[in-house]
Amino acid sequence: MESVFGNRLRQAIDSKRIDSSTEDARAWLRQKAKNTRSNTINATKVLERSSQVQQQPFGIGKMFLFAYDAKHKDTLPYWDRFPLIFPFSKLDDGFLGINMHYLPPPLRAKLMDALYDTINNDKMDDTTKLKISYSILNSASKFKYFAPCIKRYLNSHIDSRMVYIDPKEWDYALFIPLQRFQKAHANKVYADSRKIINKR
C-alpha cells in the first residue's frame, strides 16, 4: 500500500533497513518527522494524497486523520481542525477518541510508548491495533497523559474522509506538524494539557 506520507518513507520502512516494531525504528521515525518542515507535508496535503491510497474501514484502536468542524466552535476556547486520533468508543452519532495533538511532543512520545503496551500484535500491518478503552486508560499511571486528549467527535461534523494511518507510520504521523488549533496557539493548548495531567 502506498503511503499517505510519500514513497520515500514507505520505501525506507519496507526495505528492511528498519523494523518498525522496534524501539530503534520508532526513534528513527520520530526524528525523521521532527526534521520535516510544515510546508513539505501538512494535514491538507495528507488529506489530498489519501485519495490515491487504499483506505481501511473505521475501527477502534486504529489511527486516523481527518478534517473537523467543531459543533460548538463559537464557545470552545480552542479546537483542532485536523485531529489525529485513536478511537476507543463508538457512539450512535460519532465516537470518542484520543487526539494525540493535545500533548506537546515529549508527552506525546510518553503516551504513545505506553499505548504500545496494549497493541494486539507486532505485525505492524492492517491487523494491528491498540486494545484500549476508557477503563484501561484510567487504570494505570503510565496512561496518565491521556486525560486532556479525550475528545468526542460527531460524524456530521467530519469534513473529509477518515484517512487511515498505517501502524508502521504511527510514530511519523505523531510528530509531523499536522495539528491546526483554532482560536489559540499550540503553546496555550499544551500548557492547559499539562495542568489537567498534573491534577490527576
What can you tell me about this protein's structure?
This protein is of the alpha+beta class and 200 residues long. The chain has one domain. Helices cover 31% and strands 14% of the residues. The chain is built from seven helices and seven strands; from the N terminus they run αααββββααββαβα. A five-stranded antiparallel β-sheet has the order 5-4-3-1-6. Strands 2-7 form a two-stranded antiparallel ribbon. The protein starts with 6 loop residues before the first helix and ends with a helix.
Note the topology.
Blueprint: H1 7-14, H2 23-34, H3 43-49, E1 63-65, E2 79-80, E3 84-91, E4 94-99, H4 105-115, H5 134-137, E5 150-154, E6 163-165, H6 170-175, E7 181-182, H7 186-199
Antiparallel strand pairs: 1-3, 1-6, 2-7, 3-4, 4-5
Integer average pLDDT: 89
Distance between the termini: 41 Å
Assembly context of the chains: single chain
The major β-sheet equals: 5 strands, antiparallel
The count of strands amounts to: 7
Tally of DSSP helical segments: 7
The level of helicity is 25-40%
* Number of domains as seen in the coordinates: 1
- Radius of gyration from the alpha-carbon trace, in angstroms: 16 Å
Q: Please give the order of strands in the largest beta sheet.
A: 5-4-3-1-6
Find the structural class using helix and strand composition. alpha+beta
Shape: globular
Uncertain segments are none
